[in-house]
Backbone:
């Protein structure tokens, strides 16, 4: 008997992860169908996807965009079109959904992820901010509702695959970082970085937010915190190495000092497909194989915490516990937005985050309300600091 097709809800359907997930589903229609699609405002991108995949629910958080989509849908298309952030919860928990892919950028994905968990739906997590902002709360919910939390980030997927049921044997996690476009630059060099420079990632094609986070190394810092919650590994046992070729996606050292690595070309469709198909592994004839002879050389370097203080701030926030990583995440989002808007310099991003962290009085992160209140405080504080610069 053929295995049951999985219903997939995609939050962030028009972003880089969302469009890669659409490609995975398109190439595996015998295994998956789409129950819901959600995006921010790109209704023109969403329209053909709605027609192709016929989800039961479509959400655009922008009200005008939702209205435009609804006006342009064929009359024969039977789906509910909704708007606003609250509607994301309905997309995350759409009828017949087996797994919700949380690929919307930033803390906005937290509430809808929580809604899906409470509904007993498995989570394919591409939004690392969910665990950075609410790691303790979210992981406890996952245990309570007995759902799977499956990593989509290439690094965490690599760790998940390398551990493969041997969590008790893990001694250390080694996260690889591409180093972004500025590895090797001095603090003085980084003061002259432009937005155009920061958006030129050497290996990956991603959205603005994650590309800039990769340039500051904040993205790797957020991944350190996410790895702590996903795999229950102490921060002192999570290392970061710069691997500019982005072929080894991460490594796990076992207690006997054996090291297991997961390798592959830098293509997000592979970890997305594994998260959606788990515990199965589907044939992927449409993706190129890794040719090690062509790769030739792989290098490993130490991250420069002086030039890239964001990684240091992430480690410090994670180790400090309580609400510090929530504040780290929220203040970073505001600082990145300010850099994109050309209100602050590239190096000021980490400065703003550190200033907010220094002003923060920590609280226990034991409810969604606390996370939301802390998030709002951190954003307001970051805005105040930016306005005074």
Residues:
């Amino acid at each position: 008997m053929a295995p049951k097709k999985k219903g997939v809800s995609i939050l962030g359907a028009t972003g880089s992860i969302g469009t890669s997930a659409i490609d995975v589903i398109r190439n595996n229609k015998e295994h998956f169908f789409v129950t819901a699609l959600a995006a921010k405002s790109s209704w023109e991108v969403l329209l053909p996807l709605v027609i192709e995949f016929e989800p039961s629910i479509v959400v655009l958080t922008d009200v005008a965009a939702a209205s435009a989509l609804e006006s342009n849908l064929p009359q024969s298309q039977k789906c509910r079109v909704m708007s606003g952030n609250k509607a994301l919860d309905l997309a995350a928990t759409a009828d017949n959904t087996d797994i919700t892919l949380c690929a919307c950028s930033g803390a906005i994905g937290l509430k809808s992820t929580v809604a899906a968990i409470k509904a007993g739906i498995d989570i394919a997590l591409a939004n690392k901010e969910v665990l950075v902002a609410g790691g303790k709360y979210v992981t406890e919910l996952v245990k309570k509702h007995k759902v799977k939390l499956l990593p989509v980030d290439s690094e965490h997927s690599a760790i998940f695959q390398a551990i493969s049921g041997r969590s008790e044997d893990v001694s250390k996690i080694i996260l690889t970082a591409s180093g972004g476009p500025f590895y090797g630059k001095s603090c003085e060099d980084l003061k002259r970085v432009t937005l155009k420079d920061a958006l030129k990632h050497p290996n990956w094609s991603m959205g603005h937010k994650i590309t800039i986070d990769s340039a500051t190394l904040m993205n790797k810092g957020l991944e350190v915190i996410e790895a702590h919650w996903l795999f229950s590994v102490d921060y002192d046992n999570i290392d970061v190495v710069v691997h500019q070729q982005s072929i080894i996606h991460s490594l796990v050292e076992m207690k006997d000092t054996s090291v297991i690595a997961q390798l592959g070309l830098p293509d997000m469709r592979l970890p997305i497909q594994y998260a959606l198909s788990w515990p199965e592994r589907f044939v992927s004839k449409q993706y190129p194989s890794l040719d090690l002879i062509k790769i030739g050389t792989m290098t490993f370097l130490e991250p420069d915490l002086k030039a890239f203080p964001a990684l240091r701030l992430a480690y410090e926030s994670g180790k400090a516990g309580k609400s510090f990583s929530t504040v780290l995440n929220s203040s970073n989002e505001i600082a990145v937005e300010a850099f994109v808007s050309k209100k602050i310099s590239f190096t000021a991003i980490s400065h703003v985050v550190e200033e907010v962290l220094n002003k923060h009085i920590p609280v226990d992160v034991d409810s969604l309300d606390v996370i939301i209140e802390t998030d709002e405080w951190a954003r307001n504080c970051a805005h105040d600091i930016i306005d005074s610069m």
